[in-house]
Amino acid sequence: MKLYKNELLPYKIPSAVAGMIIKQMFAGNELTSRIMTLHNDVKDIMYGCKSIYEAGKRENLNLPLFYSNMDKIFNR
């Protein structure tokens, strides 16, 4: 794990401190703000999930948990 110390560091920051840093990043950087907006776009996320669902069914992939969860979402 010593080799991954730098990669693990952000996960050791207290959530309150991380929240303040992220808030500043979004307020001051338009690109970061747009990226996070895209990550929260439900229609875009559902499009990706539906595409994976259809491709998995078409290719007969064994994804029972994914299919079960997506069926619940589709039937809402």
Mean pLDDT: 87
Low-confidence stretches: none
Q: Tell me the helix content.
A: over 70%
Oligomeric state of the chains present here: single chain
**Count of DSSP H/I helices:** 5
Question: What would you call the shape?
Answer: extended
Instruction: Give the ordered list of helices and strands.
Output: HHHHH
**Annotation, overall tally of beta strands:** 0
Q: Sheet with the most strands?
A: none
Give the N-to-C terminal Cα separation. 43 Å
CA-atom Rg in angstroms: 18 Å
- Which structural class do the helices and strands define? mainly alpha
Beta-strand percentage range: under 5%
Describe the protein's architecture and organization.
The chain has helices at residues 5-8, 15-28, 30-39, 42-58, 64-74. The chain is mainly α and 76 residues long. Helix 2 crosses helix 3. The chain is extended. The relative contact order is 0.06.
Topology:
Blueprint: H1 5-8, H2 15-28, H3 30-39, H4 42-58, H5 64-74
State the gist of this model.
The chain has helices at 5-8, 15-28, 30-39, 42-58, 64-74.
Key descriptive features of the protein:
76 residues, mainly alpha
